[in-house]
Structure formats: structure tokens, C-alpha cells
Amino acid sequence: MTHVVVTGSEGFVGRQLVQRLLADGLGGQPIGKLTLLDIGFAAPPADARVQALAGSIADPGLRARAYRDPVDAVFHLASIPGGAAEKDYELGRRINLDATLGLLEDLRGCGAPAPRFVFASTIAVYGEHLPPRVDEATLPNPGLSYGAHKLAGEYLVADATRKGWVQGCSLRLPGVVARPGDGAGMMSAFMSQLFWKLAAGEPITVPVSADGVAWWISVGACVDNLLHAATVDPVRLNPRRSYQMPVLRFSVGELVEALAARHGADRKALVRYAPDPFVERLFAAYPPLATPEAERLGLRHDGDIETLIRRATA
After folding, report:
1. Cα separations (Å) of 291 from 125, 246, 251, 275, 298?
2. What is the CATH number of domain 2-175+218-244?
3. pLDDT band of 51, cuts 50, 70, 90
4. pLDDT tens-digit profile of 131-166?
5. Contact (CB, 8 A) for 197 and 204
6. pTM to 2 decimals?
7. Are 218 and 311 in contact (CB under 8 A)?
8. Residues noted as catalytic
9. Any residues with CB less than 8 A from the CB of 157 and at least 6 apart, and which?
10. So what CATH class is 176-215+248-287+303-312?
11. How confident is the model over 206-235, as a mean pLDDT?
């Protein structure tokens, strides 16, 4: 029976991933044990297969408890988001960089086959100074410590794979929607709040212009890709062990139009645009993106904006 570890399991993507693992297993194999790590748990799944460990992933003792039984796969989703990591560099480094290395080092000598290790990286590795077109050869240039630490994590995953500790794969996540709540600590929170505010008929002020263009993916499509990365034949992975997740690209104004078509034309008047140049550069100035390598591997975006809205708010 498969033992899977998920860090950041109480997060937006983590909760969806946990539901899928419990329902469908991993790669056709049922889950025998699912170990969840997060700083705390509101209500962990009432399932005998679940072990919920509360605490910081920077704690070696917590990680040792998670790895006490042989591990088949690790999904490392835990992080301190960009805005919060900028305000508290030490915390961001401890969780986003040091704990990633700890999770990998703890798996040394765990036996063959080495466990799968899927690392949730981010498009923040590209920074704010993007070329007219981004493809899989575009060099990263992080503009935040968050992006720098995530990029370093990608290299650590590739190095641990080279050493045989894990069979790793890093996926660069775009704006995953539609995250509930106010998105505390996340400068990109407006991307999800648009979905919920307009569905509820509530006003919203967004820190970018209507013409601001972002990269988008629903949480459902994101989880599809994470699961695929953990089950694809490792010989098919590139030497970098890193892929940009495919995305849909459209403007904030186009999203508002599509949401208004779904919920009512009056919704457009609820949106006020108050562009913040820094936020616009980081989250709403994205050029076309080409990901043929990722698509050949089997990674996918939502297909179209209507499908994204349906899956994001299901």
C-alpha cells in the first residue's frame, strides 16, 4: 500500500490534493497511509489512513515522524507566500529554502526505489523583467526572495535526484484560482477574490489595470498536473527535473467579462481598478508563454476561460 506525505496540506492546493489522493489513490495504487504536515489543522479528514502532524516543517523531529514508515511519494507544497516572505526574510528562508533541503536530505538512504518528490515551485522565479515571449529556455530572474528560494529549491530537487535520494520533479505554478478567503500575505490574492466577489455580487478593488494580463490555472487542473508529475515514467523527465506548468493567458478585464456573462452583466460595475505599479509588474504583465516540453510530458491547462471558471469555483 502506498504511503504519501503532503506538506502544506491545509493550504488551498493541499486540501484539493488530499481529497484526490484519498478518493483515487496515486498512479492506480490505493493509499495505505497519507501523512499530512502543516502548522495546524482545522479538521483533518476523518479517515483511518490519515496521519496529521501539526508543526513547522523546519522541525527535524516533525519530519522524522512523517518519514518513520517507508515513503513512496512526497508532495512538497508548504511555503511562506511572497508578500509575507518579503516582510520576514528569516521565516521565508527557513520554510521556503532550509526546510526544502531538510525534506530532501532526510530521504537519503531510504532504499530503492527512491521516493517520488514533487516540489511546488512558482512563476515568481521569472521575476518582473520578462522578455516579450517566455518559453522553457527563458532564464529565471527572481524579483522576490520567495522566487529566489523557490528557484534554489528546484536545483536542490535536481541535485537530490542526481544523488539518488529521490526521483524529483519541480513544477512552476502560476496563479491558481479560486482560493477562498482574503489571501493574507499574498499579493496575488485579487486573482482569486475576483471569482468569489463577483459571484456573490460584492464590490472589489483590484491593484492592477483591466488590461493587465496574467497566467491562470484552476486548482483542479493544478492538482491533475501534480499527480501526473508523481506518476510519469522518470526516464521521460528532463535533466533539470523542472517544468513550467501550462497556463491560460488572458487579461483581468477578460476575466471580468467572462464572470459577468456567467453571473450577470451588472457584475462589471462592481470592479474598481486601482493599479499598483509593483503589483502590476509582478502579477499582471505576463507575455505569451510556450510550454511544448511540459505538454509533451502530459501536463495541461484548463483549455478555455469558461472551463477554468467552472473548475475554479466547483
Report:
1. 16, 6, 19, 29, 11
2. 3.40.50.720
3. very high
4. 999 999 999 999 899 999 999 999 999 999 999 999
5. yes
6. 0.94
7. yes
8. 146
9. 100, 104, 117, 119, 166, 168, 169, 170, 241, 242
10. alpha beta
11. 97
The rounded distance, in Å, linking the Cα atoms of 236 and 239 is 9
CA distances from 242 to 117, 215, 276 (A): 12, 18, 31
Residue 188, C-alpha cell as written in the block:
496575488
pLDDT in tens, 55-95: 999 999 999 999 999 999 999 999 998 888 999 999 999 99
Handedness of CA 41, 31, 238, 98 (dihedral sign): positive
CATH 3.40.50.720 intervals, the chain: 2-175+218-244
All CATH 3.90.25.10 domain ranges of the chain, comma separated, are 176-215+248-287+303-312
Q: Which of 219, 218, 288 is nearest to 255 (CA)?
A: 218
Q: 169: which strand partners?
A: 118
Half-sphere exposure of 154 (CA within 13 A, CB side): 23
For residue 165 the three cell numbers come to: 535520494
Q: For residue 108, which of 170, 58, 64, 50 has the smallest C-alpha distance?
A: 64
Q: Render pLDDT for 191-202 as a digit per residue (tens, 0 to 9).
A: 999 999 999 999
